[in-house]
């Protein structure tokens, strides 16, 4: 990681946003839970010169050994193997073993981090989120050790018989309004149904001879002196 460029431009902007999202309180909760489960301090192998916080947490987990120990205790002794060799490909293999083990255990794939997120410190916040997801899943499955975070909600699958499904097709949902007081009484077959209960005979005819203001006015309009077929002259303002 020391030889990896820090990035610039858009890459630096993305790394800055990820760093701003990092929650030290959640990291501390994950750290204490790991220590309680495996029975040893998380950063015992980290040099005292390493700064506290995100960099120290990354240095403690980078080789994947502590994560493999954590998964081994939760999923069952002897199920998760790890290698103590201090070479990059072995350390990344340890991280991958951890990810494979907890996915088989039931942690959703969308909750898992990528190997480079931890090994190259690309997204350590996602590593913290994965540890919390493992803690929630452990409670759901029945792990009797220390707890981390709230218990996951259990599925509540509903099953309906074919008769129940068919019965629902006769119900009109509220989104469709209501069919109460609807009636076809007095309607002839094929006759148009009126939306409003108003008969044409009942409509007043007084307004039919009136021109609305939106149409202008016909006051003073006249065809006097005009011959049939002759164009009607438009008078200018000074005529």
TrEMBL record:
UniProt keyword Cell inner membrane present: no
Protein name: Calponin
An example molecular function term from Gene Ontology annotations: calmodulin binding
Ligase keyword on record: no
UniProt keyword list: Actin-binding, Calmodulin-binding, Repeat
One BP term from GO: actomyosin structure organization
Cited InterPro entries: Calponin-like, Calponin/LIMCH1, Calponin_repeat, CH_dom, CH_dom_sf, SM22_calponin
Organism per entry: Ridgeia piscesae (Tubeworm)
Domain called Calponin-homology (CH): residue spans: 24-138
CC per GO annotation: actin cytoskeleton
Function statement: Thin filament-associated protein that is implicated in the regulation and modulation of smooth muscle contraction. It is capable of binding to actin, calmodulin and tropomyosin. The interaction of calponin with actin inhibits the actomyosin Mg-ATPase activity.
Alphabetical list of SMART domains matching this protein: CH
Region (Disordered): 215-239
Pfam families found in the cross-reference section: Calponin, CH
Chain intervals with Polar residues compositional bias: 215-229
SUPFAM superfamilies listed in its UniProt record: Calponin-homology domain, CH-domain
Family (UniProt): Belongs to the calponin family.
């Amino acid at each position: 990681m020391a030889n990896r460029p820090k990035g610039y431009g858009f890459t630096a902007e993305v790394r800055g946003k990820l760093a701003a999202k990092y929650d030290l309180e959640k990291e501390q909760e994950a750290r204490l839970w790991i220590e309680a489960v495996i029975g040893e301090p998380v950063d015992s192998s980290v040099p005292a010169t390493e700064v506290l916080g995100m960099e120290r947490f990354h240095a403690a987990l980078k080789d994947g050994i502590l994560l493999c120990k954590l998964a081994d205790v939760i999923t069952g002794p002897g199920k998760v193997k790890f290698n103590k060799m201090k070479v990059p490909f072995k350390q990344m293999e340890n991280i991958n073993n951890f990810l494979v083990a907890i996915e088989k255990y039931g942690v959703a794939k969308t909750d898992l981090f990528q190997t480079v997120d931890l090994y190259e410190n690309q997204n350590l916040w996602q590593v913290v989120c994965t540890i919390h997801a493992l803690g929630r899943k452990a409670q759901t499955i029945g792990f009797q050790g220390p707890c981390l975070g709230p218990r996951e909600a259990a599925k509540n699958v509903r099953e309906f018989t074919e008769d129940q499904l068919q019965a629902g097709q006769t119900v009109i949902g509220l989104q469709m309004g209501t069919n109460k007081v609807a009636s076809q009484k007095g309607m002839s077959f094929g006759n148009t149904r009126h939306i409003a209960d108003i008969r044409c005979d009942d409509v007043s005819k007084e307004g039919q001879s009136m021109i609305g203001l939106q149409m202008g006015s016909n006051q003073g309009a006249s065809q006097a002196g005009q011959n049939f077929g002759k164009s009607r002259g438009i008078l200018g303002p000074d005529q």
